[in-house]
């Protein structure tokens, strides 16, 4: 079986602890975790602990598309590792690792004073995908999801 790996990154103006928590708080998660313009979130259930399961019911054209997984590693605020299974993985478990890296503080010129704003690099690696279609679809989905996270923090 072919094991393809997808990597998506996004620099976000927020502290990594806040970004990390956004992945584990069900209310927050439901507000930003959107994988495309036409896809909505019907419901989300998270049990954020190693061995805990999650269920994300996405909706598209009146259909419910369940996405399931199990948390493997929760290393706050550095790394999340979880399995990921959906119609887009041919209902096979795949592996997702999300890391949160503090970037050097960016100095912003404000009139006479300088202030520092936290910035975090969010890196998502999705492993065990089996073909180019899965890579393409997940690249679009994860890129949209990280854009949603960025937009949610820039409000």
From TrEMBL:
Activator of Hsp90 ATPase homologue 1/2-like C-terminal domain: residues covered: 14-152
One Pfam family here: AHSA1
Residue spans crossing the bilayer: none
SUPFAM superfamilies: Bet v1-like
Stated family: Belongs to the AHA1 family.
Record's protein name: SRPBCC domain-containing protein
Organism: Leptospira bandrabouensis
Taxonomic lineage from the root: Bacteria, Pseudomonadati, Spirochaetota, Spirochaetia, Leptospirales
């Amino acid at each position: 079986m072919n094991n393809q790996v997808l990597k998506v990154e996004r620099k976000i103006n927020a502290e990594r602890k806040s970004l990390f928590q956004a992945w584990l708080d069900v209310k927050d998660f439901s507000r930003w975790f959107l994988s495309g313009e036409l896809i909505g979130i019907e419901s989300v259930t998270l049990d954020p602990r190693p061995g805990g399961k999650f269920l994300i019911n996405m909706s598209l054209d009146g259909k419910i598309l369940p996405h399931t997984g199990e948390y493997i590693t929760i290393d706050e605020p550095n790394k999340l590792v979880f399995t990921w299974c959906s119609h887009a993985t041919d209902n096979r478990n795949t592996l997702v690792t999300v890391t949160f890296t503090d970037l050097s503080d960016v100095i912003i010129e404000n009139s006479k004073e300088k202030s520092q704003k936290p910035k975090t690099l969010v890196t998502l690696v999705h492993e065990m995908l089996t073909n180019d279609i899965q890579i393409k679809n997940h690249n679009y989905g994860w890129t949209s999801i990280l854009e949603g996270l960025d937009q949610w923090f820039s409000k």
